[in-house]
Write the structure tokens for this entry.
Amino acid sequence: MAEDGQEDSGSPLSEPDRIAPDGAMTSLGCSDQVLGEGSRLLRRMEICVSEAEKRSCRNAVSMLETFTVYLIETRPLEPTADGRNSSPDSVWRRYSEFELLRNYLIISYPYIVMPPLPEKRAEFVWHKLSADNMDPDFVERRRVGLENFLLRVASHSVLSNDKILHHFLTKEQGWKDLVHETGFQAKADSRLRALNAIFRVRSPNKHLMEVKHYSDELQSYTSQLLRARTRVADRLYAVYKVHGNYGRIFSEWSVIEKEMGDGLQSAGHHIDAYAASIDDILEEEEHYADQLKEYLFYAEALRAVCRKHELTQFELEMASQDLISKKQQREELATGIVRTFSFKGITNKIFGQEAPEQREARLNLLEELTSEGEEAVKEKTAECDEHAERAVTDILQFKEQKDKDLQEALISYALMQISMCKKGIQVWSNARECFLKM
């Protein structure tokens, strides 16, 4: 688990580090001090990703590389000793540094449904929106997504207490070294081991299996919703642009009409303005789509928690089987009765029994191995139970937040569609008035 084996200052905070002696929260004015257990960083500090900037530099092979960096600004909420507001700290971070932070948190806290980062390249976009990751509109949406990621992490009662997070937010240099010093990459489970566990675990946790199935369905339905939204956006874009033809025709027609000219020209202006508004409307709609995409990516975070438990359960089952085997060998050696076929039993029958000294030495070795196996099973059982308990608690909190966020996003999307329809009705009502005045 995350709290096990924390050996240095870059590791997740140990229990004594998290809680002040008097139980109160420690100040965040210094990055070496930390919050109390269960506190939220956002209660002590303002966090925002205020701007993005494009930069270029030479990479390791002397090729010019262009990338985007994001300015993170933080400000302690408590005033200084003289009563003044603290000045903000600021650091520049690349997207890859956000990825490193998240990977570290995933490995250090495997029972937490980790907030996702915004997409690296735009997906599910209407055809006129650029999918280039250097496009200013995409960079702006990614900036909002990165800020949302930091706010979600900083509002989590466990993640917000991590010292690496504090260094990421406040220290321009050196934080990567602290991450690598934790040895978190060595703790990463190989894909092969995880895949093996998925197919071979015998007694999966029932509740987490349900969560795993739910995450698959959540991803499926969210993907379908985003695809449908993209198709609607494309068709809506086409309809608005066709309105531009109405405006052009009415304006050109007004040139040859004396009595009807003013009315046709006014109607054309109304419809032209309506047609031109679609680009801003659909770009605004992308922000609502990004809220849905966040939960599309959350589905993978849910599965990651379940996969980690499957791997822990698989290791427990392997340790249990090994313990049973050791106990059986000890019993056979002690009684001299071989109950199962073994190569050792065949050689004993051919070459005779071992000398008493050899038999005693093997018996002592099996006693030690059995004792070690029992301790390993005990530790794995505790780790497995703890992971499941913590995961279930965090998943319940995630679901509460998900229901609230998705309800808000879908309501906002519906209100925007209603507003667009009202605007269309108003435009054609204005055009009707123009026609009546001809």
The longest strand covers residues 45-58.
